[in-house]
Amino acid sequence: MIELIQFAWSPFCLVQHHILEFSGARFTTTDIPSGDRSLVWRLTRKRYYGVPIIRDGKSVIFEVGEDTQVIAKYLDTKLQLGLFPWGLEGVQSILWQYIENQIEGIGFKLNDIYWQEVVPPSDQLAFLRYKERKFGRGCLDQWRAQQKDLLSQMEQRLVPFEEMLLDKPFLLDQRPRFVDFDLYGILANFLYSGHYRLPAAHTRLRKWHRRMTRIQVKSLHREEELHS
Ligand SMILES: N[C@@H](CCC(=O)N[C@@H](CS)C(=O)NCC(=O)O)C(=O)O
């Protein structure tokens, strides 16, 4: 059975988690502390310490670069999800970089403001130390002070997605592709603390989000058969 090794609020883990839910395949999740990557280090034979990684029988799958989608492509091929059609490859690559930089870069700060509610007490020291070493001392307090501004930047940066949904139910197509799951997972991190909702002005995005929450590949296949 496929095992997703993760921590639950990680944006990139939430992307893979939702792809697995969509697939209907049986899978397990193993939560590790964000501050202790020893399991990942061991399973990848000292080649990776990030999350997510996937264990599938004897295979261990992990990203090999900043902008690779090794795990999603592995799941796509294995579970036949149709997330990476050739015709959309270039445009998906451009879009996922926007999603994983411009949207994720704001979403994680907004969620981290509530880190004391989200991160288990045993993991809080390592979490705080990691954040402050990466973003500077007091960064979490600064993000709290900038919360209103960050929220309005998030609303602005979501405008292109609202526009993409003007004439179709998913971002690029009549059915979800990888970038739909990417945006969904990155937004799941923004929404994780429970303190936020998607911007009220983005009505299409909110409907897309409800569709994405429920979607299952087997019902898509049924619909495709009906229309063929
Ligand atoms: N592009 C990678 C990014 C993964 C990533 O940045 N994961 C974070 C957690 S959300 C991580 O483990 N970073 C390394 C660290 O925290 O030391 C992916 O899609 O999996």
Write structural notes for this entry.
The protein is an alpha+beta fold. The protein has 2 domains: 2-79, Glutaredoxin (3-Layer(aba) Sandwich); 87-227, Glutathione S-transferase Yfyf (Class Pi), Chain A, domain 2 (Up-down Bundle), CATH 1.20.1050.10. 58% of the residues lie in helices and 7% in strands. The chain has 12 helices and 4 strands. It has helices at residues 11-23, 38-43, 70-79, 89-112, 115-118, 121-135, 139-145, 147-157, 159-164, 178-191, 203-214, 217-227; strands at 2-6, 27-31, 53-56, 59-61. It has a 4-stranded mixed β-sheet with strand order 2-1-3-4, covered by helices on one side. Helix 1 links the parallel strand 1 (2-6) and strand 2. Helix 1 crosses helix 10, helix 4 (89-112) runs antiparallel to helix 8 and helix 4 runs parallel beside helix 10 (178-191). The longest helix has 24 residues, at 89-112. The protein is globular. The two termini are 33 Å apart. Bound molecules: glutathione (GSH). The site of glutathione has 9 residues, from helix 1.
- End-to-end Cα distance, whole Å, is 33 Å
Number of helices: 12
Bound molecules: glutathione
Strand content: 5-15%
Order of helices and strands: EHEHEEHHHHHHHHHH
The CATH C-level class name of the largest domain: Mainly Alpha
Could you tell me the number of beta strands? 4
* Corresponding CATH architecture of the largest domain: Up-down Bundle
Keywords summarizing the entry:
228 residues, alpha+beta, Glutaredoxin, Glutathione S-transferase Yfyf (Class Pi), Chain A, domain 2, 2 domains, four-stranded mixed beta sheet
